[in-house]
Amino acid sequence: MLEGHKEIEVPADVPVWDVDPYDPAVLADPLDYYAELRSKGPFAYIPKYSILTCGRYEETKEVFSDWERFVSSRGVGIQDFNLEEPWRPLSIVLEVDPPEHTRTRAVIERALSPRSVANQKETYSTAADKLIDGLLEKGTFEAMEELAETYPTTVFPEAVGLRETDRQRLVDYGEMVFNALGPNNELRRNAMAKGPEVVPWIMERCQREQLTLDGFGSTIYAASDTGEITEEEAGLLVRSLLSAGVDTTVTALGSAIWCLANNPDQFDLLKAKPDKARWAFEETMRFTSPVHSFYRTANVVTEVSGIKIAEGTKILCVLAAANRDENHWPEPDKFDIDRRPSQHLALGVGVHACVGQNVARAEGYAVLMSIAKKVESIELAGETVWRPNNSIRSLAHLPITFRGK
Ligand code: OVV
Questions:
Q1: pLDDT per residue over 160-188, tens digit each?
Q2: For residue 9, is pLDDT > 90?
Q3: Dist. CA 182 → ligand 1 center (Å)
Q4: Distances, alpha carbon 177 to alpha carbons 91, 233, 239, 247, in Å
Q5: Which of 34, 115, 279, 305 fits a disulfide with 42 by CB distance 3.0 to 4.6 angstroms?
Q6: Ligand 1: which of 72, 76, 90, 91 to mutate, most ligand atoms within 8 Å of CB?
Q7: Does 219 score more than 90 pLDDT?
Q8: How far is residue 87's CA from residue 98's CA, in Å, rounded to a whole number?
Q9: Residue range 50-62: average pLDDT?
Q10: Which pLDDT band, with edges at 50, 70 and 90, does 67 fall under?
Q11: Which DSSP letter does residue 210 get?
Q12: Distance from the alpha carbon of residue 240 to the mean position of ligand 1, in angstroms
């Protein structure tokens, strides 16, 4: 066993690569690692963790889409749940395969449906306008804390229907969940140390009586009244919302501001046509890939692009590398809001593709639309600092100056 999974033999025709994808220096500045990964071929073998890794668009998409050969039920992190206990009760939507997945996914998909999210659009844009007005008054501010963290932790708990909320605990729980997918390194241990303080609070928020009657949470619990799921399952699905809905959108919003600050020509295009906000957010997701990687586990002996893959192989699918693949994207390293990159892999692909994507897009659209209408210029006002995480690529600090129109 190595990092909670079976050690595999080096497959034939796969280069051995002495790299540590979890080295904090790689996590903070990963573009060279992504490029080298793609240059290795369809897969590379990383002996330090005894894993395969892929980062070309085609193979990453194939592994990610094929839930029959590459399962999620053995965990989407480095641990194999067939061999080691997960740190928390399994997610009944993320860490499960069809047919079980189909039933729970249907419930959560209904709660987060386009119609359900459309009902909240007004709230999202009002909150965005208020936030951006306040930041324009300040002029210079810390965009991770005051914009990227503030916005989702304002609108999302209300959308879910939490009666009690706590920004820091929501962010800390997300950090635990995403760091937990990596090896047992310092990042994971530091995040996990917050568990005793954060986990009971999160679990309490998922209880029916802690939820309002008009949020995503109540729609999920309604499915337990008809017998589609049990009450206990409803609680776990609310936990999934709180696991996946905060850090991801915080990261994406921060990175969107970073992209616009670094590409004033693109911000000019957005200001000229604020309707492009949707595509500016989409291009941010392609360009920065908030979730940089997830695993799948080969559940059978199989083959991809002529490479033999052993049963039990953990495959690190580097979505962020696929989103920069020069064989798929023209000028992949250009941030281009007119690209309309609808096939990017930042939200995954296949039956497990992000079920909250309507919510994420609505939040991103509201914030970027408000900025496009109100802000004349976005400038970096100091040093940007990245926050290494085993599965998320986020900024920690982003000092920004907004000037108004
Ligand atoms: C990290 C993550 C992503 C998606 C779903 C979940 C967690 C979950 O807990 O279901």
A1: 999 999 999 999 999 999 999 999 999 99
A2: no
A3: 14
A4: 11, 19, 11, 10
A5: 305
A6: 91
A7: yes
A8: 23
A9: 98
A10: very high
A11: G
A12: 5
Q: Which two tokens stand for residue 379?
A: 């400038």
Ligand 1 atom nearest the C-alpha of 174 is 1
| Residues in the ligand 1 pocket, defined by CB under 6 Å | 91, 93-94, 177-178, 240, 243-244
Q: Is the pTM of this model over 0.85?
A: yes
- When pLDDT is averaged across residues 69-93 and rounded to a whole number, the result is 98
Name the residue at shortest CA distance from atom 9 of ligand 1: 240
* Nearest Cα to Cα of residue 295 among 397, 193, 182: 182
CA of 94 relative to ligand 1 center, distance in Å: 6
How far away, in angstroms, is 354 Cα from ligand 1 center? 9
- Ligand 1 pocket: which of 72, 94, 181 to mutate (most atoms <8 Å of CB)? 94
Both structure tokens of 107: 């419930």
In which element (H, E) is residue 316 found? strand 314-317
In the chain the domains, ranked by start, together with CATH numbers, are 24-404 (1.10.630.10)
- Name the residue at shortest CA distance from atom 10 of ligand 1: 240
Instruction: Tell me what the mean pLDDT of segment 366-382 comes to.
Output: 98
Q: HSE, CB side, 13 Å, CA atoms: give it for residue 386.
A: 16
Q: Burial letters for 91-113: b for 16+ Cβ neighbours within 10 Å, e otherwise?
A: bbbbbbbeeebebbbebbebbbe
Question: Which residues, 6 or more positions from 15, have their beta carbon under 8 angstroms from its beta carbon?
Answer: 40, 41, 44, 45
Task: Please give the distance, rounded to the nearest whole angstrom, from the Cα atom of residue 266 to the centre of ligand 1.
Answer: 32
Q: Please write down the HEC assignment for all residues of 38-77.
A: HHCCCCEEECCCCEEEECCHHHHHHHHHCCCCEECCCCCC
Residue 39 phi/psi, 5-degree rounding, is: -70, -20
- What is the whole-number distance in angstroms between the Cα of residue 11 and the centre of ligand 1? 30
DSSP category for residue 8: P
Structure tokens at 44: 């590379």
- Ligand 1 atom closest to Cα of 92? 10
Which residues are paired to 70 by β-bridges?
298
* Structural contact between residues 148 and 131, judged by C-beta atoms closer than 8 angstroms: no
Per-residue CA distances from 169 to 195, 329, 350, 360 (Å): 10, 38, 31, 20
Nearest alpha carbon, ligand 1 atom 8 = 240
Question: Residue 91 C-alpha to ligand 1 middle, in angstroms?
Answer: 7
